[in-house]
Amino acid sequence: MTTEEERTKAATIFDVARLAGVSHQTVSRVLNDLPNVRPATRERVERAIKQLRYIPSPAARALVTRRSRTIGLITTGLPEFGPSTTAVHFNEAAREERYAVIMASLLQADAAALRQAAETLVRQNVEAIVLITSNRSTLGLLQSMDLGVPFLGVVSQGSGLHRVSLDQYQGARRAVRHLIDLGHTGIRHVAGPIESMDALERIRGWRDALGEHNLVAHEPVLGDWSSASGYAAGQRLLGEDFTAVFCGNDQMALGLIHALTEAGRSVPGEVSVIGFDDIPEAAHFTPPLTTMHQDFAQLGRDAMEVMLAVLTDEEAPNPLLRVPQLVVRASTAPPPLR
């Protein structure tokens, strides 16, 4: 037997799926001549079948009909407000559609832990896997794995995948535009960690909004989303000339305000501060925080809606991004007269 004959004999439905760039359920739909497969997708699958000289078994034909009504959900990092709220409402939306969700929560999403989580979910016969993360490397690792099931990322960056997100870039632009409309020209940014896709999109929005008005974008001060890092950023900025700060999230804004007021700088009398997320406590900061409201509950529901569309049609388009909304409270005001 030649090497080619051995390869042909060993071909499985998963080999066909890999070559065609689809899930094994889509291959099974093509084998069964079922609807909801796009002509171009069907053609790719049929071409892969021919190239591999694949002969389907009865079990392979039956794969598409064995519905587990189970979805795997992987979350990474600490249980912060946004991702946690998104996950809860994704679970609720899944339950309403009579799907069960099996969760894997990873504090440190290294390659080994991520692969183990994904393989465990696939062994439990999930129909799809959803990833909620802000970390670029985590997304890249999971994208590189041969999952064999549809994959959806709740991520703010990424190409070549199904994804849903809130528009971090436009949200940041709106936040900075609010400060500019108040008359501020010296606007600094306290950003999240550089490996965070959300943080990168907010930095990009901040830079572009300043650039549109020919304002200088100094290097952002990096934090880690915590109030402590916002406090440290505030102390670092004290000796610099600025009248407003755009913070990458509300917790860092809280720490920043602490550092400013401790040093005798009035908010918003001398420095305006705007956050991002609109956590429940933001309305009760001193002063109440102007921020960008992110609808994390709707994001969770959107993720389930898109996942259902992908299970029906693996080439379903990604939805338009929802833009965070400005919530004006008492931490922003026109700059002081000089």
Q: Would you kindly provide a written description of the structure presented here, covering whatever features stand out?
A:
The chain has helices at 3-10, 13-20, 24-31, 39-52, 58-62, 81-96, 111-123, 136-144, 168-181, 197-212, 227-237, 250-262, 296-312, and strands at residues 70-76, 100-106, 128-132, 151-154, 162-164, 187-191, 221-222, 244-247, 272-274, 291-293, 325-327. The chain is an alpha/beta fold and 338 residues long. The protein has 3 domains: 3-64, 434 Repressor (Amino-terminal Domain); 68-165 and 296-320, Rossmann fold, CATH 3.40.50; 168-294, Response regulator (Rossmann fold). The strands form 3 sheets. Strands 2-1-3-4-5 form a 5-stranded parallel sheet, sandwiched between helices. It has a 4-stranded parallel sheet with strand order 7-6-8-9, with helices on both faces. β1 (70-76), α6 (81-96) and β2 (100-106) form a beta-alpha-beta unit. α2 packs across α3 (24-31) and α11 crosses α12. The longest helix is centred in the last third of the chain and has 17 residues, at 296-312. The radius of gyration is 24 Å and the shape is elongated.
Give short descriptive properties of this protein.
338 residues; alpha/beta; 434 Repressor (Amino-terminal Domain); Rossmann fold; 3 domains; 5-stranded parallel beta sheet; disordered N terminus
Question: Topology, pairings included?
Answer:
Blueprint: H1 3-10, H2 13-20, H3 24-31, H4 39-52, H5 58-62, E1 70-76, H6 81-96, E2 100-106, H7 111-123, E3 128-132, H8 136-144, E4 151-154, E5 162-164, H9 168-181, E6 187-191, H10 197-212, E7 221-222, H11 227-237, E8 244-247, H12 250-262, E9 272-274, E10 291-293, H13 296-312, E11 325-327
Parallel strand pairs: 1-2, 1-3, 3-4, 4-5, 6-7, 6-8, 8-9
Antiparallel strand pairs: 10-11
Helix pairs in contact: 2-3, 2-4, 6-13, 9-10, 11-12
